[in-house]
Design goal:
By secondary structure, the protein is mainly α. The protein is built from six helices and no strands. The longest helix has 24 residues, at about 80-105.
Amino acid sequence: MTSENDVLSEVVAMLAEVVGEDFLLEQTVGPDTTFNADLALESIEFVALAEKLQRHYGTRIEFAAFIAGLDLDQIMAMTVGDLTSYIEGRLAASREGAADAAAAPDTADTSAAYA
């Protein structure tokens, strides 16, 4: 099970790859850190982060859909905590979906066995 702290650590590590570890040494990145005002993330860096998220989490995270649901002001004010909360929510939904699928009865056609 992935905790919010694990997701935060993973996102910070991806940010370090995108903007450079030297940049992140100058400040502490936490849940309240904004991508725009604090990290001054350029659009190309944001795209690079999105690609890293997709590679790491796969189809469990629909980052493009998440961003598409926000207006420009929300995107500009987005924090690392907003992103980690979204990721944790998607991971939890993915785990629940997998658990539901595992608990579902086998729906294979068994009528031939009773013929």
